[in-house]
C-alpha cells in the first residue's frame, strides 16, 4: 500500500532514497528477510557512521548516514511489497531513529567545541522538526486513505496485526510514547486543528519535507564532508524557527 494515493503525492525532499529502497525491497521480496531485519540493518549503518565521525572518516560517515536513510525507507517498502504492515516494525523504526539521532548529535558534540546545551537544544529542535513533518504527513495519509500504520494521535496501544505479537507491540508502543510523547504534545499544542483544515497543498508539504529525517541526515552528511562539522548543531538549532513559521502559514492559509 502506498503512503498516499497518486493524485495527492508530493515531492518529498527527505525521500531521495526511495528508488534505491524499492530496489532493495524488491530483491528481498522472495527471501526470508523481514522488514525488522532491514531496520536492524539501518541501525548498524547508523552506528558505523557514528564510529566514522569519532575517527574522522567523514566521507565514509556521510555514506553510511545516507545508507541508513535508504534502509530506513526500505523496511517500509518491504512491508508493503510483502503486504505485511506491522505496528512492531513501525514503532521499532521510530524508536531506533530517535536513539540514533541522539547518539549522532552527542558524537558531533564530542568531536567539536560546541556547547552541550547547544547540542541538547539542537536535538530537541531536530525532533520537533521531524514531528511536525510527520504530523502533517500522517494527517494527509488518514484523509486520503493512504498507509494507516501511523496514526495522527498515538494515544492508545494498537491491536497487533496478523503475524505480530501483541506483547511486542505493547513494549514498543510504551517506548515510543516515552521517547516521542513530549514532542507529539508540543506540536499538537502549536497546531491542534491541523486535521480539520484544508488539505495541505503539495508545495507546502514539499517545503515541510526539509524536516524529514532523510533530508536532515543528508544535511549532516554534506556538512561533515565539507568540513563544517562545527556548524551542524547550531544549524539545526536555528532552523527550528521554521517550525513556527510553517505552523503560522498553515493556520493563515489552510484553515
Automatic annotation (TrEMBL):
GO molecular function: phosphotransferase activity, for other substituted phosphate groups
Residue intervals passing through the bilayer: 40-67, 88-109, 115-138, 203-225, 231-249
Keywords: Membrane, Transferase, Transmembrane, Transmembrane helix
Record-level GO BP terms: phospholipid biosynthetic process
Zinc in keyword set: no
Family statement: Belongs to the CDP-alcohol phosphatidyltransferase class-I family.
Domain of life per record: Bacteria
Record-given protein name: CDP-alcohol phosphatidyltransferase
Database matches in InterPro entries: CDP-OH_P_trans, CDP-OH_PTrfase_TM_dom, CDP_ALCOHOL_P_TRANSF_CS
Record has Transmembrane helix as a keyword: yes
Classification lineage: Bacteria, Pseudomonadati, Bacteroidota, Flavobacteriia, Flavobacteriales
Cellular component GO terms held in the UniProt record: membrane
Organism expressing this protein natively: Nonlabens ulvanivorans
